[in-house]
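Could you join me in thinking about how sequence relates to backbone shape in a protein? To get us started, please write out a protein record for me. Would you write everything just below, so we can both look at the same thing?
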Amino acid sequence: MSRPGAQPRGAGYGLDAPPSRRQPSRRQPGRHRAGRGEAGVLAGRGEAGVLAGRDRLYEIDLLRITAALAVVFYHYTFSGYAGHLTSIAFPALSIVTRYGYLGVDLFFVISGFVVLLSAWGRRPHEFVISRIVRLYPAYWVAVTITAIFAITLSHGLFRVTPVQYAANLTLFNSLPNIPNVDVVYWTLWAEIRFYLLVFALTWIGITRVRVVTVLWLWLAATAVMEARVLPAGPASKIDLIVQSQWSHYFIAGMALCLIYRTGFSWQLGAILVITYGNAVYQALKFAHRVSGRYHQALHQPVIVAVITAIFIITTLIALRATRRLGRPWFATAGALTYPLYLVHAYNGFVLFNRFGRMMNRWVLLAALVTGMCCAAYAIHRLVEIQSAPRLKRALLRLADAARASPGRGRFRRP
C-alpha cells in the first residue's frame, strides 16, 4: 500500500516506551521524565534503572504490541498475498486482518503522547541524543538483516543496492528519493519529521501554553494543506513538515499528553474533536485507495469504529481511568514492538515463499509470527539493552565536549 510521496504503507510501530505515572516535581514543574528505556523499545528501564510497577503506563505497552501484531497479521494474511508478494492466502482470516494497517494510526497517536512527555524538561541536545539512541541501533541491525535476506534468499523479489543500503542507514534516504530497504520503514521518516517539531519546542522551552499554541497552528496548517489553496510545488515542500496526512494523530497524542500532565480543558477537548474528525476523513479516503489497489472491500463502518476506539481508549489512558488494568507483563510484550516492526515484513515474505510449499499454511503462519517475535526479543536484549547505552554515553561525552569547547559558552542554553 503506497502513501503519497512514493513511500509504501505497510506496517506501523511505536517508537517510544510508555511514560511514567510519576508526577512532576513541584519545585521543577518543567521536569518530567518518561519512564521509558532509552536503550530499548519498551525495555521498562529508565535512566535510573527499572521503574517500579506502579510508575509505568502498562496500558500503552499493551496497545503498542497489539498494534504491532495487527500490522504483522495484515502483512502475512492479507497484503502479502493481495500484493502478489507471497503465494499463501488466508481468505477467511483476511476478512478481519485487512484492517490491521490501522495499527499505524494508533502508533502515531502513541508517539505524539510519549515523545512530548519524554521531551518535557529536556535540553535540546538531550532530546536529540535520546532519539538517536532510540532509533538507530536496532534499525541498523534490522536493515542489515533485511538486506541480506533480500540479496541471498528473495530470488529477485526484493532488490537492494549498495547505495540504497548505505542511504537507508542514515534514515534520511527519503530526501533524495532513495527507496526504503523494507516497505515498513516509511513510518520512521514520518517520525523524524515529527521530532523536528518537538526539538523546536525543547529549544524554546516546553510549557502548556506553548504546546497548545503549536497544536492550533499545526491544525491550521493542516487545514491549509488539505484545502489545496497553495501551488503544488511549494505545498509539497511545506507538507514535508506539516504532514497533513498524519498530523491529526500526532496532534491528538500531544493533546493527550497535556491532559495526562495537567488535566482536561475545553481547548484540549476541542483539539481532540477536530483531530478525530480529520482522522476519520483521512482514514476513509485511504481505505478507498486500499480497496482499489488490492481489489478487496474495506467497509467504512469498520474503519470509523477502529478510529473511534483508538481515540476513546487513548483518552481514557490520558485521563488515568485505566490504571487498574495495567499488568507488569505488558511491558515485556511491549518491548518487542519496535524490533518486531523492523524485521517482520520483507523477511517474512521471503520465508513464506521459501517454505510455503513444504508446510501447512497455518503452521507456517504460527511459526513465522513466533520466530519474528523471538528475533525481536533477541534484538531487544542484545542490541537495545546492551549496545545502545554505550552509544548514548559516547554521544553525551561528545555533547559535553562540544559545549565545553572555547567560544561555545555564549550559545549554551541553561
Notes: Residues 9-17+32-214+244-402 form one domain.
